[in-house]
Structures are given as C-alpha cells and as structure tokens.
Amino acid sequence: MENKDLDELFGGLNFDIEEPHAGHRDRFFKKLHQVSEEPKGTTQRLWNPMFGIAAGFLLALFLVFEFTSPVQAGNTDLASISPEMKQTQEFYTGLIQKELNTLRTEKTPETEAIIQDAMSQMQKLEKEYAKLREDLSESGKDNRVIHAMISNFQQRIDLLTNVLEQIETIKELKNANHESTII
Asked: I need a labelling partner for 90 at 20 to 30 A (CA). Which of 55, 112, 154, 172 fits?
C-alpha cells in the first residue's frame, strides 16, 4: 500500500473525539504545584553531604593506595604471585626453619666455628633474597627472578644440610676416638 491509499483509508476518520472532563486543566496545574511545593525529604537532604564525604574518602583511599603501591611492591614475595608459589615459599621457609632449629641444638664447642660460618653464609643468602624480592617487584614477576628466588631457598637448605652432615661426621669421629680409649 502506498501513502495515498493510507490517506484515503484513514482520511475520513476523526480520532480526536474525546474531550477532557471539565476542570481537567485546573486539576492538572493544582497537582503540578503540589508536587513542586512539597519540601524535599529530610533524608534526601541528609544523604547528599554524606555521599560527597564518602566519595571524597574513597578518592583519598585510592590516592593513598596509588602512591604507596611502589613501597608495598618492594615487599613482593613468592606468595604474592600465586597460591602455588605461596605453598612453595611456605614449604621452603618451614624446612629452613626446621634445619636452623636442628642446627642450634647441635651447637657444641667442637661445632661452634662451623655453625658460625654457616650463619654468616645464611645472612649473605638472605640479603641476596631481599635483593631478589626488589627485582621481582621491579620486573613485574619475571620468571627468571622467580627461579632465582627458589634457587636461593634451595641453596640455603643445601647449606644447612651440609653443615648438619659435617656436624654428624664430627660427632662420629668424637665417638670413635673415645671408643678406642675405653679400657
């Protein structure tokens, strides 16, 4: 159908046949004035400043977090990378702590020099690990740094294991010497 046909079809019809009831205009304006004259709720007036305060507080928190994130990034550790790395770090630190406790219990006058040397080497490895933590935060969690951190843990465990083996050898030699002197 073309526009011409539609015009012919609806041309004779008048859709505007209803008139509003008497006083419609007056009732409409009366309602309009009532709505505009009603005072805004006190709750709305109370919440407007609170929303502003909350927005300011959130902005301040965001800025504080943004400016302190490099400082916190310096504290990046294996645990911050993934849950698996957190487990790895906890495993190694637990094992190192256990070995250190064992080493402390084995301290005797004969083993004191070995233990002191081991502790100084452990301090060097811990300083190296602190540098690796900084490198990790700066490199954006580079796999090479992660591998170096794990390797550092392994070196510490190997060091402690070797020292404990040397202490066991010293104890065996001491016992062997005393056995031969018994009458």
From this structure: 112
Residue 23, judged by CB atoms within 10 A of its CB (0-12, 13-18, 19+), counts as: exposed
Domains of the chain, by residue range, sit at 21-73, 77-181
Token couple for 13:
């019809």
pLDDT digits (tens, 9 = 90+) for 140-150: 778 888 899 88
Cα 77 to its chain centre, rounded Å, is: 11
Question: Cβ distance 118 to 163 under 8 Å?
Answer: yes
For residues 82 and 84, give the distance between their C-alpha atoms in angstroms, rounded to a whole number.
5
pLDDT the model gives residue 155: 92
Is residue 150 within 8 Å of 92, Cβ to Cβ? yes
Lowest mean pLDDT among 65-74, 101-110, 114-123: 65-74
Give the helix, strand, coil percentages of the chain, each rounded to 5.
80, 0, 20
Angle 47-50-52 from CA coordinates, rounded to 5° = 115
83-105 and 112-139 helices, crossing angle to 10°: 160
Burial 33-54 (b: 16+ CB within 10 A, else e): eeeeeeeeeeeeeeeeeeeeee
Structure tokens at 47: 């919440």
- The CB density around residue 99, as the number of other CB atoms within 10 Å, is 19
